[in-house]
Predict the 3D structure of the following.
Amino acid sequence: METRALVRIALVAALIGALGFVPPVFLPIAAGVPVSAQTLGVMLAGLLLGARGGAAACALFALVVLLGAPLLSGGRGGLGVLAGPTVGFFLGFIPGAFVTGWLAQRLRLPALVSAILAAVVGGVGVIYLCGVPALALVAGISLQQALIGSAVFLPGDLLKAVAAAVLASTVLKSWRIPARA
Amino acid sequence: MIGGYLDLRSPLHRLPAGVKLIGLALLSLVLLPVESPLVLVLALAAVILVYASFGRRGVARLRQWLVLAPLLAAIAALQIWAASWSVAATSVLRIALMVLLADLVTLSTRLQDMMDALTVVLRPFERFGFESRRLSLAVALVIRFVPVLLANWRAREEAWRARSSRRVGLALVGAFFSGALRSADQVAEALEARGFAATGRVPGEAGQGMRPVVRQQTRQETRED
């Protein structure tokens, strides 16, 4: 791996962490549910770095959180996260970013549309697919209850998918061109 | 930034990271199957006592985990409705206990010590081309980048507010991301200029791939900010 790729992955992982600190000022709050900007970073990781790079960035983010850096939204971090009810959502970031990046490169649709679809499937669908069963297991509730409980975050997450796609398209425009000194 | 590590002197802090991690794993295995709310309450009380023994900062640390309270309350409500009080108590107590127990390891272990413990675990993979040195660099970069990114965002937000009464829009976020990614490439160039080659290990110098890179003059000068 090139140094450049390594540093980009580290930067995107840091971006996911920094988004955990951002109070949801520019994201609309759906139905009174606070929306963390963190999964926005996960979708962006897949869209900007592709499947493998995006998954690597999320894995690196997860590692740094587990090592003890309180970068998960709400200032959480450390091994306690693994025992909490949201562990599935947290670990789901990794496959979520992978699927987002994988789909975005393969869908044969207008760029923005495929980016939105990829972010919805990977950044929302896959993360819920990991998070909901884990929530049910840790909390000892049924899958249905876990799903209903998580569904309040859906409107916000779908908005984030659109925001991630729009952001990725603007960022990629300026990023692909090598920076001139 | 709040640190995961709590700088204190305690017997727990003196234990090596590996011992604490193995101890946590064993304790989790023992405590997970426990169904009796009474046992869980006692265990939770013991853990809270450990936090309390750390003084005011220990209590403040406990308070940080109150972010989980709404979620735990929702879980409890669901279970009281679907099952019974004792089932609700068992699962909420168990989650709180496991989270606080695990956090004891985090707050008593420096991030670097945790990283070193991880490196020991990963060492067998080095023969398959895995380089823990690069992983350490990546972790260090993430930890360093986060406050830089936050400061950069605040500066941009301030500049926006000074010029406009409108709300901060997506355009600013886009510019922020572009700037951040561009600075990543500059950091990569700076690293290579200082002799960090990410690819390949130098034969005979296992695990110590630092070597001068002569490619630098073909690259543009690192921009000065």
Observations:
- Chain A touches chain B through 61 residues (CB under 8 Å).
- The helical segments of chain A are 3-19, 38-67, 80-83, 87-106, 111-139, 143-151, 154-175.
- Residues 25-32, 177-181 of chain A have pLDDT under 50 and may be disordered.
- Residues 38-67 of chain A form the longest helix (30 residues).
